[in-house]
Design brief:
Largest sheet: 8 strands, parallel, barrel
Shape: globular
Strand order of the largest sheet: 3-4-5-6-7-8-9-10
Distance between the termini: 32 Å
Oligomer: single chain
Number of helices: 9
Strand content: 5-15%
Length: 290
């Protein structure tokens, strides 16, 4: 058993009462796998290091298809692209919506890469039939109505930790999804809001081994949102793998200076390719397979 939590931040959560996410009841690591358009299997967990890469937001057909081809050639196993965007500034680009989903489908047809995209409210679920992994963003981590619906949808869910939540609360949120019958959940650490200002968020690197000890679910890291600065992303990505992460979510844009969303934290295709070369070495050291 896990034993009594020592820190007050965790005492209100009896993690041992959770039935689905806790390793006590599921000792073996879970694997979330997606079949590509051919016979290939794309997986995260169970010794497989999944790399999800692509732009923060889908902007046009040429952009998303070109990036999809680039990240696949470099070794990415999933394509990310935002189409419904929750933005702090109401005048910022809010995403292409349904048209963006159509463009993601075109990119998948060209490359065979499974798709990852964020849902922001329940009513959008009907548009996500062609999306392979549905992402729940940090702002929606405790949108319990949404989590319950995603628990019934039958598609893998990538659940991001809120920028102001504990790791224990992340596990509680995952339990909401799994309690409705969906066992294909991926956890994502993306950094917390602290008093530090040099980075967009402060990556909680210790959360990776902490979660690994307590849950069988795959755990990935989003270095792009944690760092908020493309120059910091490669080092943060390597640290995440060294800490035991099962994968990474990386933002890649062919023209970051003119990106409609989060260009400052997006890697160029060349930088992403160089990083993938390095990550293969790190994966070997951690005995994971890309």
């Amino acid at each position: 058993m896990l034993g009594k939590e020592k820190h007050s931040a965790c005492t209100e959560f009896n993690l041992e009462a959770l039935k689905k996410v806790i390793r006590v009841f599921h000792p073996e690591d879970s694997v979330v796998s997606i079949q590509g358009t051919g016979h290939e299997i794309h997986a995260i967990g169970g010794g497989m290091l999944g790399i999800i890469a692509g732009p923060c937001a889908v902007e046009n057909e040429q952009q998303i298809i070109n990036i999809a081809k680039t990240v696949k050639a470099a070794g990415a196993s999933f394509l990310r692209g935002g189409v419904f965007k929750l933005r702090t500034n109401p005048y910022s680009f809010q995403g292409m919506g349904i048209e963006g989903i159509k463009l993601l489908a075109a990119a998948k047809k060209e490359t065979g890469l499974p798709l990852v995209s964020e849902i922001t409210e329940i009513k959008q679920l009907e548009y996500f039939n062609g999306i392979d992994i549905i992402q729940v963003g940090a702002r929606n981590m405790q949108n319990f109505s949404l989590l319950k619906e995603l628990g019934k949808c039958g598609k893998p869910v990538l659940l991001k930790r809120s920028l102001a939540s504990t790791a224990a609360e992340l596990l509680m949120a995952a339990e909401y999804i799994m309690d409705e019958g969906n066992v294909n959940v991926i956890l994502c650490e993306r950094g917390l809001r602290t008093f530090e200002t040099f980075s967009r968020s402060t990556l909680d690197i210790a959360a990776i081994p902490w979660l690994k000890q307590r849950t069988h679910l795959p755990i990935i890291v989003d270095p792009s949102h944690a760092a908020g600065d493309a120059a910091l992303v490669p080092a943060v990505a390597k640290a995440a793998i060294a800490a035991g992460a099962d994968g990474l979510m990386l933002e890649v844009h062919n023209d970051p200076e003119h990106a409609l969303c989060d260009g400052e934290q997006s890697l160029t295709p060349d930088t992403f390719s160089d990083l993938m070369t390095d990550l293969k070495k790190y994966a070997e050291l951690e005995k994971k397979r890309l």
